[in-house]
């Protein structure tokens, strides 16, 4: 059995968790976790302000780690390793978490495991679903990332698709901004879309039908802007039509990727936008048509959290990996 302390601070969530890699249920695997969102601090600016984010991480992280260990009824000495996000992300925030992880590892004489935040998202479904075996096809859709990966094993990822402009979550956030729904926009767009007619506003489906499974959302966002400026549509209809167009793109792209990858055990969706119920429903249909189960971690594991970082640490610890204490924080770090 291994107990891992996970630390996450790469964007606007400060998070810490204790993971027990031998737990047989999700509740047993996540011994304790805490997340502090900075949404309120960034809301006036309509997006994450890196300097504000880094300062808030500094204030919150240290006490939070003490609280999470207390919640778990454990001490730092009980941990087998410390796993901290080392990138990609906003560099100030990444440094806060990584330096904290290094200091704890040094003080308690524990191995440090530097985690790629994207690997955290990619492996989080295995935290939620102990039976999920490699290889699986992963649709990773968040505010900063929009990729389809063939996850063949720990550290063995083949990227089949990426976005040529905006990420899916970014498209939701920009649509929310255009409609005056505030930040973060994804959940607000989804709520408003429920009251609208998805066929009311004709919108483009960029790249649908192309043979490579890449994504593009910039043209869709511009069309949403024009529809709003025209002043002839209800906001709910714009939200519903946008969501439908975006999901049509995602489903088409994922279908192409399913045809291009090797045999897989499941279709998996992760990242913040995986919290979207309409997306889950459409993916469920696609997966069952392909004879695959759809694995979608609970929404709390889809948005940024430290349990997924601790879990990636647990998988790496089991393989005997650890990192030197001078490992660098990386603003960019492709999987
Ligand atoms: O994974 P995440 O918490 O942070 C990143 O690493 O980006 O994802 C946040 C993104 C935001 O763009 C947010 O608007 C989007 O996920 N999101 C949603 C929903 N919940 C969160 N988008 C659409 N529908 C939702 N229900
Ligand atoms: Zn993320």
TrEMBL record:
<keyword id="KW-0963">Cytoplasm</keyword>
<feature type="domain" description="Gcp-like">
    <location>
        <begin position="30"/>
        <end position="311"/>
    </location>
</feature>
<dbReference type="InterPro" id="IPR017861">
    <property type="entry name" value="KAE1/TsaD"/>
</dbReference>
<dbReference type="GO" id="GO:0061711">
    <property type="term" value="F:tRNA N(6)-L-threonylcarbamoyladenine synthase activity"/>
</dbReference>
<comment type="similarity">
    <text>Belongs to the KAE1 / TsaD family.</text>
</comment>
<feature type="binding site">
    <location>
        <position position="304"/>
    </location>
    <ligand>
        <name>Fe cation</name>
    </ligand>
</feature>
<keyword id="KW-0012">Acyltransferase</keyword>
<feature type="binding site">
    <location>
        <position position="121"/>
    </location>
    <ligand>
        <name>Fe cation</name>
    </ligand>
</feature>
<protein>
    <recommendedName>
        <fullName>tRNA N6-adenosine threonylcarbamoyltransferase</fullName>
        <ecNumber>2.3.1.234</ecNumber>
    </recommendedName>
</protein>
<feature type="binding site">
    <location>
        <position position="173"/>
    </location>
    <ligand>
        <name>substrate</name>
    </ligand>
</feature>
<feature type="binding site">
    <location>
        <position position="186"/>
    </location>
    <ligand>
        <name>substrate</name>
    </ligand>
</feature>
<keyword id="KW-0479">Metal-binding</keyword>
<feature type="binding site">
    <location>
        <begin position="140"/>
        <end position="144"/>
    </location>
    <ligand>
        <name>substrate</name>
    </ligand>
</feature>
<dbReference type="Pfam" id="PF00814">
    <property type="entry name" value="TsaD"/>
</dbReference>
<dbReference type="InterPro" id="IPR000905">
    <property type="entry name" value="Gcp-like_dom"/>
</dbReference>
<dbReference type="InterPro" id="IPR043129">
    <property type="entry name" value="ATPase_NBD"/>
</dbReference>
<dbReference type="GO" id="GO:0005506">
    <property type="term" value="F:iron ion binding"/>
</dbReference>
<keyword id="KW-0819">tRNA processing</keyword>
<keyword id="KW-0808">Transferase</keyword>
<feature type="binding site">
    <location>
        <position position="276"/>
    </location>
    <ligand>
        <name>substrate</name>
    </ligand>
</feature>
<dbReference type="InterPro" id="IPR022450">
    <property type="entry name" value="TsaD"/>
</dbReference>
<feature type="binding site">
    <location>
        <position position="117"/>
    </location>
    <ligand>
        <name>Fe cation</name>
    </ligand>
</feature>
<comment type="function">
    <text>Required for the formation of a threonylcarbamoyl group on adenosine at position 37 (t(6)A37) in tRNAs that read codons beginning with adenine. Is involved in the transfer of the threonylcarbamoyl moiety of threonylcarbamoyl-AMP (TC-AMP) to the N6 group of A37, together with TsaE and TsaB. TsaD likely plays a direct catalytic role in this reaction.</text>
</comment>
<dbReference type="GO" id="GO:0005737">
    <property type="term" value="C:cytoplasm"/>
</dbReference>
<keyword id="KW-0408">Iron</keyword>
<dbReference type="GO" id="GO:0002949">
    <property type="term" value="P:tRNA threonylcarbamoyladenosine modification"/>
</dbReference>
<feature type="binding site">
    <location>
        <position position="190"/>
    </location>
    <ligand>
        <name>substrate</name>
    </ligand>
</feature>
């Amino acid at each position: 059995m291994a107990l891992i302390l996970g630390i996450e601070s790469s964007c606007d969530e400060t998070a810490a968790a204790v993971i027990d890699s031998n737990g047989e249920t999700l509740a047993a695997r996540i011994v304790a976790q805490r997340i502090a969102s900075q949404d309120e601090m960034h809301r006036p600016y309509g997006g994450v302000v890196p300097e504000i984010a880094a300062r808030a991480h500094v204030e919150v992280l240290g006490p939070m780690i003490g609280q999470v260990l207390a919640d778990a009824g454990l001490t730092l000495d009980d941990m087998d390793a410390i796993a901290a996000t080392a990138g990609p992300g906003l560099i100030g925030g990444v440094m806060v978490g990584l330096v904290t992880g290094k200091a704890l590892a040094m003080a308690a004489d524990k191995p440090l495991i530097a985690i790629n935040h994207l690997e955290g998202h990619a492996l989080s479904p295995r935290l939620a679903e102990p039976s999920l075996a490699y290889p699986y096809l992963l649709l990773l859709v968040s505010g900063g990332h929009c990729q389809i990966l063939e996850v063949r094993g720990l550290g063995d990822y083949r990227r089949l698709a990426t976005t040529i402009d905006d990420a899916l979550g970014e498209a939701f956030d920009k649509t929310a901004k255009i409609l005056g729904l505030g930040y973060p926009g994804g959940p607000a767009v989804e709520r408003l879309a429920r009251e609208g007619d998805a066929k009311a506003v004709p919108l483009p489906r960029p790249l649908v039908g192309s043979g490579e499974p890449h994504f593009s959302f910039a043209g869709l966002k511009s069309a949403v802007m024009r529809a709003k400026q025209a002043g002839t549509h209800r906001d709910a209809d714009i939200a519903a039509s946008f969501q439908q167009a975006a999901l049509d793109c995602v489903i088409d792209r994922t279908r192409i990727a399913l045809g291009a990858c090797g045999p897989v055990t499941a279709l998996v969706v992760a990242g913040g936008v995986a919290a979207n119920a309409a997306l889950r429903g459409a993916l469920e249909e696609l997966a069952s048509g392909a004879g695959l189960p759809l694995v979608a971690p609970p929404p709390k594991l889809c948005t940024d959290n430290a349990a997924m970082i601790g879990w990636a640490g647990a998988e790496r610890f089991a393989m005997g990996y650890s990192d030197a204490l001078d490992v660098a924080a990386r603003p960019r770090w492709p999987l």
